[in-house]
Amino acid sequence: MHGGDAPVTAAPHHVTPKVTRLPSRGRPFAATTGPVLGRGWEMPLADSAWGHITCLVADHLISGPDPVGTVKLQFREWASWPWNPAPGTYAATIVRHAQLASLTDPDPLPIRLLEALLRIDAVAVSQDQPQLQRYLDTLRKEKAALDSDDPFSSLIFPGSGEAFIDRVQSRAFISTLVTPEAGKPEPVALRVVGEQQTGKSYTWWFIVHLATARGIKPVRVVLGRSSTAEDILRDLSLKVAIGDEQPDPVADPVKRLRHWAQWLVGQAARHDPGRTWWFVFDQCNELDENSDAVELIAQLAVAIREMTGDGVRRPRMILLGYGDEYADLQLPRKQVFVDQVAPVTEAELRDFFRAVFREIDRRCRPDQMPDDDELAGLVDVAVDQVLQEAGAAVAEGTPFMTAVRRAVEETVDVYEG
C-alpha cells in the first residue's frame, strides 16, 4: 500500500474480462501451506495429547521432593523465574508454557520437554512411550515445516483466512524487529502513520499471525481520547505482571510514570523470558497530545532501550497512529522505524490476486494451470468484484480497509471453492 499508484476508490474499475464469473478452482486454505498462503501456527497436538503429557509430567518429571528445582535445572527458561504456583498446578503450568512456546526457536521448549520425559527410565519402558514418541515426531516435523516457510511473505493467514495485501515496507520493518540485522542497532519501536482509514490498525493482525511462528508475545492496548497512563498500566499489567505484583507507590507524578515504565519492562523480562513481548498501542491518534498516557508511552521506549543483561529480550513497541505531534520517544533514529501507509491501490490488488490464484492452482490443480492470459482474465474479474463490493460497503459506512479486506477474502473464498 505504498507507492504512487492511484488508490482504490468507491467507484468500480471497469474491465473487459475473458470470463464473467470467477470459477471455483481449489480447496480450502486450511489444507494448504506455503509462503503465499501461509502455514498454520497452532501447536500441532490435540488438547487430549497435552492432557496426556501433563499427566506424564506430574507422574514422572516432577514426582520428586523438589519439583521446582528439578524443572529449573533442566529448563533454562525457568532458571531465574520467581515461580511459586500451588503444588497441584506444577505440571499444568509447565505444559501450558510448552504449548505457548514457539517451534521456530533453535531449541524449542515443547520438543525439549518431550525429550526429557522420554529419557526417564520409567517412561521409556512404559506403555506411554510409543504415543509420546509419536507426539515428539509430530512436533519435529512441524518445526521442520515452519523453518522452511517464510511467514513474513504470507498473503493469506492460515487459520483465520484473513488477507494481508501488499505492505512490503511494513513486512520489512516487522521482520527486522523480530530479527535485528547483525552489527546494527537493535530496533525498539515502529510507528505506523497515515491518513484516516488507510489501515494502520490492520498491522495488528500481521503481528498476531507471526506470534507463535516467530516466538513473539503481542499484547494490544486500544486507546481513546480519555485514555490515561493508569489505563495503560492496568491493561499491560493484566498480561505481563507476575502473580499479584504491583508497582510501588510514587508520589511525584513525573517519577511515577518513569517508575511504572521500568516496572512494566522488568515484569515483561521476567514473565515468560523465552519469548519477546510486543506492546501494541492501537489508535494512538485518538489520544490527547497532553495526556499522561503519551508520556508513559515515551517512558516505556526509554526503559526498553536502557535494559541490560546477557540474553535479555527487549520488548518491542508498535505505535499505530503515533504521529509527529506526540511526545518524542527519545530513541536514536536507527532504533525507531516509521512506516507511512497509504490506501491500497488497484495495482496492489492485481499483484495480490495474481500470486494467490497462481498458488491455489499450483497446489490444488497442477495439471490444469491457467496460462498467463487466462490468469489475467481471472484477476480482472476478481479486482472488479472487490471494487464493486468494497465501494458499496464504504457507502454504507464500513471503514475503507475493512471493506476492501472483506471483499478480497470473499472473492478468494469463491475461487478456492
Short description, anyone?
This protein is an alpha/beta fold. Helices cover 46% and strands 7% of the residues. Among the domains are: 47-148; 168-340, 3-Layer(aba) Sandwich (Rossmann fold).
Task: Name the features.
417 residues, alpha/beta, Rossmann fold, single chain
Structural features, described:
This protein is of the alpha/beta class and 417 residues long. Among the domains are: 47-148; 168-340, Rossmann fold, CATH 3.40.50. The chain contains 14 helices and 5 strands. It has helices spanning 47-61, 67-74, 90-100, 109-119, 121-124, 129-148, 168-178, 203-210, 229-240, 253-270, 292-305, 346-364, 372-395, 400-416, and strands at 189-193, 216-222, 276-282, 316-320, 336-340. The protein has a 5-stranded parallel β-sheet with strand order 2-3-4-1-5, sandwiched between helices. Helix 4 (109-119) runs antiparallel to helix 6 (129-148). The longest helix is centred in the last third of the chain and has 24 residues, at 372-395.
Q: Any low-confidence stretches, pLDDT <50, length ≥5?
A: 1-21, 26-35
The residue fraction in helices comes out at 40-55%
H/E element string? HHHHHHHEHEHHEHEEHHH
End-to-end distance, in Å?
28 Å
| CA-based gyration radius | 24 Å
User: What would the principal axes of the Cα set say about the shape?
Assistant: flat
The CATH superfamily of the domain at 168-340 is identified as P-loop containing nucleotide triphosphate hydrolases
CATH architecture of the domain at 168-340: 3-Layer(aba) Sandwich
The CATH class name of the domain at 168-340 reads: Alpha Beta
Q: Averaging pLDDT over every residue, what do you get?
A: 83
Number of strands: 5
Q: What is the count of DSSP helices, taking H or I runs of 4+ residues?
A: 14
Question: Helix/strand/pairing class, anyone?
Answer: alpha/beta
Strand content: 5-15%
CATH topology label of the domain at 168-340: Rossmann fold
Largest sheet: 5 strands, parallel
The strand order across the widest sheet is: 2-3-4-1-5
